[in-house]
What does this fold into?
Amino acid sequence: MIFKLSFLYILICGSFLFLFSGCNGGGDGFNELEDTEVTETDNSTPEENEVEIIIESIIPEETPVILKEFQEVTFGIQVNSGAGDVNYQFFLDNLLVQDGTSPFYILDTFYVDAGDHDLKVLASNSISEIEHIFNTRKNSKPLISLDTNSSQTINCISDTFTLSISAVDPDADSMSYSYLLNGSENSTYLSGTNTLSTAQVVFNPICAQAGSNTITIRATDIHGEYNDYSMAVTVTNPNIASIDSYSPTADPVVILSTETRGFLVSASGNPPLNYTWEIDPGSTLVSCAGSSTCSLSGGDLSPGEYTLTAEVSDSLGTSDDHDFNIVINDRPSISSSSPSNSSEVKMNCNSIKSFQVQIQDLNIADGQVVTANWYLDNSTDSSLTTTYDTSGYPYVADATFAPGCDQTLLGDHEIKVVISDGFENQEYTWNVETNYFSDACNNLDSGEICTLVGMVGMGSHLNVDTNRDLLRFSPGWITTHPHGIFFSDIQRRSVWFYNPNSDSRTVLGRSIPANSVVAMFGQNQIGRGTAGRSYTEFYLNNPRGLAYSLSEDALYVADQDNNRIIRFDGAGVGSIFAGGGSSNTDGVSRTTHQCNDPIGIALDESAQKLFVACNGNSTSTIKEFSTSINEGRTLIRYGNSAVTEGTTGYSGGARLGRSYALVKDPNSDILYAADNQRCRIVAISYGGTATYFGGDISLSANRMERLTFNNSCNNTVNRAYNNTGGRLRARDLAVYSEAGVTKGLFFTNTESSYIGFLNMTNSSITIGGNAVPGKYYHRIWGSGARDYGRGEPVYTASYSNYPYGIAVHNGNLIIGDSRNGRVGALDLTVGDGESFDYFGNHYYSTYDDETDKHANLRQLNQPHAMNYSNSENKLYFVDYANYRIRSVDLSTGKVVTEVGRGSGNSNSDPEDPLDAYTRGVYDLSLTNNEEVLLYTDYHGGTGTNRNCLTRAYNMGTTDETFFNELLEFGKVQSVGGDFVQGCQNWNASYENQKARSIPLRFPSGIHAPSDGSRYFMSDMTMHCVYEVDANGDIKTFIGTCGSSGNTSGSFSSSRVTNPGTLVADTDSILSSYGNFFIVERPIYNNSRVKYVNLSPSPVTILGQTINSNEVGEVIFSVDYVGSVASFENQICYSQGSRGQLHNYPHNVVCLDRDNAITSLRIGRVTSSSFNGAVQEQDEEEGVQASSASLSGPYGLSFDVEGNLYIAERNSNTIRMVKRWY
It folds into this structure.
């Protein structure tokens, strides 16, 4: 029950004065309203004056008090004078509705339900209280229902209209009846009769009442409340033509664009009646002539406003007409839309996508309002913001979708706009997929390629601040340039340049954007560059030392594993400067000289000499090459592990171990070198002289002298230079000079991850907060812990991880902090200088984390085999050097680790998948309706307690038994091999033994038919393929274990060599038999692909027929094949998985299954010098795959739509090619 509480704060007198002598509820009655002046003062307390309360009168007095609808009723009491201060509380049905000093309460009946109610008033003072209850009843009006009625259209000559009703009063009150004509009682034309509960009225019209009339019967109860029952009656005059009624009655009548509406007039008059219909604008509707009905369709007239006139005429010439106001509706139409909805719209979840429709409606000109409402999955959503521009025509409705990578907005959704003119709607929908993939991948056209997962390209041309998340390096050696620094990337076999300036600079003919890094030379994979090629098309193999010549505008690079020195000129063109030969004869041409494993190089521009530490030479360990004439000579000969002081030159007595670090003294014709056998630092004169350690050591012209006397390599610092117990290992050197005086040498101890300083003076020198005594060497950066940190004091609070190259530049010591992925620096201008980073972020090719992020922020490390799950729309792949199996959801772009936590032993069964260690996952296969993931794990070599295993991860929801092993759901369990026995050669006694009871040698490929009844496993070292059946028994299935060959035929008589990946044939029929491909010699040239036919009939594939239960060669004359993939009529294979870039193709070739005709080649055509590459930045994103480059393509897989995925080992990415066939 709901009540309205009304409080009366003023005293009401008026009509109630006849009941009360005053209007106050206490004290002297209601005397405050009397004009009586009170002059006496009563000094007693209220309690002394007050008496018990007596109710003297009430209002209203009747019982019960009848409450009517829409009424306000005042209730009140009068108490005796002398009652003093009285408080009044009113309770309606025991609910307090008013509390105060007023004796009156106004009850609003609107808020009172029908029926009986009690209103109680409680009056109280300090000594007594009294109550009175008003009994009330909320009245109910009579209820009326129709009994019967006659025709509602009558003529005024001979017809009457009769209306009969029934009535009942809910309160059982008696009722009276009245009869109304057009709202007024009328006894002339109405005659009524009634009983207690029924009434009837008869209407007998005259012709003056022709037209519409309303007849009403009213039932009234004894309290004056009533209800009406009314009915419209049309009176016609048969003596004149008259339209008595019409249909439809709406005004206007809207005819929809696809609708047909009928119009009807009902007329009377002297027959015969004639009908005509006219439309304005327009003319007479001939099709409707003579008929009382007419039909119009939305397509009959142009959209707009019209008047349809129906005219009736009779035989006496009288007529009547009626106008229908008509709107021919134009269904709103969308004249253009963006983007197209012909295919799914895919977008990165952190991007913003705009949707637009342009709206036309011809009724807009007539003032019709057209609305546009946008919905995400049929609901409004804050991620979808909209605008609607009606200032021009067509109208423009825009929506912007910004999912913000909200997890609830990942995946498939529908965006819909509903256009409405109030009568008809037009809907336009887009199917939208939000994911973590790039816009390039989300918008591929047929045959185009993108980077699906992993950082795009080499990461060249990135701003080191705004693109910091994409930086990934392993900085090695460093040299300076007037515009910045060159550094070698020791993992990616390339040389880079960093421009720290606020504007772009040109370096060796290449524009380097401001504050950016650019890949200058080399690629991500081993290669041997060809003279004449430039920039990243010139391959390198582990570039080490660097030296820039300002006078030549040329860069010299120690190309270590190609055993030569490369010179890049001012246009970035490479040439072979020195090395590559076998001679150690002085005076012969530079390229005739032997210089194996060149590491450190030092340039003397004024003397036109380049010095090289040829670390791998067994005759001459430091060589001197002229930069002006084509000749070279030996400076220091190799002395095995001995260091012998003496004169320089081939015929001199100086000997040094395998030289590594090399730097020129900026103040003299002196070199400083360090070897990596005894790890001593020496000074070498090629004309200069010097003294060191306060005169303890003197260097004469053209001699070599030792500067440290440690006997071996290690990490024992804070030692005097001549302490034989000291230990150091210098991978690079840099000279510390002040005011033209050489005072010491910085050196990197890479393995111990610190930077040291050899103080060659008598006095203490403070660097990095550490005071290094004269004649001592000590750490000035890092404590020896492999970590990252930039803190003070630098010698204890700054850390590095495998620092290699160092250089002094502009008062800073620059450091290639390789495994921290950064180029750091130490301020040398003050003794307690700070450490900081020039740039960097990630170490190249490492594991990142499990955080949801853009798929191109993922860090993979040599992705290998892949397998697609149709049931999950996921791509499972081996993240080989991160020691994990991961998956990417192709709907959302989420990348997660499925199995693995790093490198280690798999010696626990069963175990949680994220607790499982791996050593080298080679291949994987999905089986048991894609609920079990099988994979091979190989440790390497032979021996006990090693991972030579096949393992299974039960991804289902129940425990299952496969291959005689109980696979707990959510666990990883070995199903082949034995960790304790480790890795051992196959023995004939293992045949038909339990696969879990015997050791394996090199479990490589794995394939299981979809039903999980058995699995096949290749052993690369043993040259055979095993079968493990449902009982878990293992036997040789293809080839002879321990015997290689290339023989096709029956399984037992065939021979295979180094079988690697096993790949299922996905043909819809053949897959049911478990047919599969074998990749042979995947880590060698002259690879092959063979086909295993397990079906009962011959199979012709790529032009080769393979009989039932035989294996045959189907792809040959290929190199370094990583994998194969099949889908519908396509078979693709990858080349170059581990091949060098300059010798072997790096591409993916796709063939027509039936005729072996190439349908697509992804990657470069084989050439003699340039076969593979990683795009520098994103220049190959979204291009035709046939024009893209690849480097080390390995695993392949198709999805259910026929898109191809390529695991590109050297770029650490997974590439996607949109279906092209």
